[in-house]
Amino acid sequence: MALLGLVLASGCAASADSTATHVQADVVFSQEMITHHQQTIQLAEVGAKSGKSAYVRDLSTKLIAEEKADIDMMSSWLQSWQQPVPPDPTAQMGSELKAGSGFDKEWLSALSGHLEHGLMMAETVKKAGKHGPTLELADKIITAQKAELAEIAKQAG
User: Among 46, 68, 83, 97, whose CB has the most other CB atoms within 10 angstroms?
Assistant: First the structure.
């Protein structure tokens, strides 16, 4: 019985190792996406503070929570791969947006451009990455950001 447990445990460990396989594209994606998500959080914090519509404030709050969770996950991958986790960016994304009557439209435009860039990053890692969880995250980002871009287009229209 003990031998069976040992065999089963070693089989599980081997399959866990196979999902941990990563390549440089996975590392670069995590490092760049962490910075991108940090910028999204900065932009969302500005939206949460200065947004006039409930849509902008609610989207900002949602983005902050989602991006922080993704950053934690990607940071843990980088640490497990003994790769550096990028620091918070020094430039404050969204600081050029001025509160007032046109804020929401400008903020949604800035966010759209930012999300488009994130979409391109996720599509790039899908072509070159090998780490299963990274590819799953890229799929999630692609799905979520396409939906957010469509919703923003409706709001802006």
Answer: 46
Q: Which CATH superfamily does the domain covering 22-156 fall into?
A: Ferritin, core subunit, four-helix bundle (1.20.1260.10)
Contact status, residue 56 vs residue 109, Cβ threshold 8 Å: no
Q: Where are the domains of the chain?
A: 22-156
Ordered per-residue pLDDT tens for the chain, 157 residues: 433 333 333 333 333 343 458 999 999 999 999 999 999 999 999 999 999 999 999 999 999 999 999 999 999 999 999 999 999 888 889 989 988 889 999 999 999 999 999 999 999 999 999 999 999 999 999 999 999 999 999 987 6
Three-class DSSP category at 40: helix
Q: Are 111 and 67 in contact (CB under 8 A)?
A: no
Q: Please state the pTM of the whole predicted model.
A: 0.85
